[in-house]
């Protein structure tokens, strides 16, 4: 597994916490807090697009 630099956990209502991370190869990661050994990975641009879409309300129907 590559060396991942994790951000502090982000916790929503009900203590659903996740973490975002990056590596030196330009990959982005997202994992449930405490399960960083099993992250989802994609490019940094894909992670940026995901965050932009969430901020724009495109995932509100999932909440």
Give a written overview of the molecule:
It contains one helix and five strands. The chain is of the alpha+beta class and 63 residues long. It has one domain. Strands 1, 2, 3, 4 and 5 form a five-stranded antiparallel β-sheet that branches. It starts with a strand and ends in an 8-residue tail after the last helix. The model has no long low-confidence stretch (mean pLDDT 87).
Radius of gyration: 12 Å
Average pLDDT score = 87
Q: Domains counted in the coordinates: how many?
A: 1
N-to-C SSE string, H for helix and E for strand? EEEEEH
Helix % is 10-25%
Structural class comes to alpha+beta
**Cα distance, first to last residue?**
31 Å
Low-confidence stretches: none
Number of discrete helical segments: 1
Which strand-content bin applies to the residues?
25-35%
Q: What is the tally of beta strands?
A: 5
Dominant shape: flat
What profile does the largest beta sheet have? 5 strands, antiparallel
Can you describe this structure in just a few lines?
The protein has one domain. It is 19% helix and 32% strand. A hairpin with a 4-residue loop joins strand 3 and strand 4.
Task: For the structure shown, list the relevant keywords.
63 residues, alpha+beta, five-stranded antiparallel sheet, 1 helix, 32% strand, flat
């Amino acid at each position: 597994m590559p060396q991942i630099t994790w951000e502090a956990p982000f916790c929503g209502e009900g203590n659903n916490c996740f973490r975002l991370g990056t590596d030196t190869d330009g990959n982005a990661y997202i994992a449930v807090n405490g399960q960083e050994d099993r992250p989802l990975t994609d490019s940094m641009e894909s992670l940026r697009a995901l965050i932009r879409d969430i901020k724009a309300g495109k995932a509100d129907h999932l909440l």
